[in-house]
Amino acid sequence: MLSEKLLKDLNTQIKYEFYAAHLYMAMAAYCDSEDLDGFANFFKMQAEEERFHAMKLYDFVNQMDGRIVMQGLDEPNNDFTSMLDAFQKALAHEQHVTKQIYTLMDRASAEKEHATMSLLKWFIDEQVEEEDMFKNLVKKLERIGDDGTGLYMLDGELAQRVFTPPANTAQ
Ligand code: MG
Q: For 107-151, how does the pLDDT look when each residue is reduced to its tens digit (9 = 90+)?
């Protein structure tokens, strides 16, 4: 049984994960407006991953007999000046999400809510991967700088990204 406070916080995290999908679609739209289809694909796949995160929390809350309450999403930033700018903002966002997950884990730990702690452990590991991926891409874009050829090479690489939900976490 989830406490009222933990249930509220998990519902808020569901909102944050859907908001992340919303934000990454804003970044995809910017890339599409620059005709960089590979970069746009990367962010569309990232948005899929964020919806998967939201649904993983949704399914957990439901399994724990908690009531899901869908909340409104804020309008994301739609203003970007370059691919590097978009990826720096994406990295900053993921670092912010890590803090949100840590705060949730602190609450679950304080309540000794082990099932929620087990779920959040998965999210903590996932955040390590997310931050690493964005740091890596920020570095690549910093190296590329104004090199158009490098940018198109990375665009081709990012066009290959697909999203496949992890098999062992299927509901
Ligand atoms: Mg996420």
A: 999 999 999 999 999 999 999 999 999 999 999 999 999 999 999
Is the pTM here over 0.70, yes or no? yes
Residue 143 within a domain: yes
Cα-to-centroid distance, 148 and ligand 1 (Å):
31
* Structural domain containing residue 115: 4-158
Q: How far, in Å, from the CA of 104 to the mean position of ligand 1?
A: 13
Please report whether residue 102 resides in a domain: yes
What are the respective helix, strand and coil percentages of the chain, to the nearest 5? 75, 0, 25
46 Cα–ligand 1 center, Å = 9
**Residue 118 in domain:** yes
Q: How far is the CA of 17 from the centre of ligand 1 (A)?
A: 5
Planar angle of CA 12, 6, 19, nearest 5 degrees:
15
Residue 71 · residue 12 · CB < 8 Å: yes
CB 48 within 8 A of CB 20: no
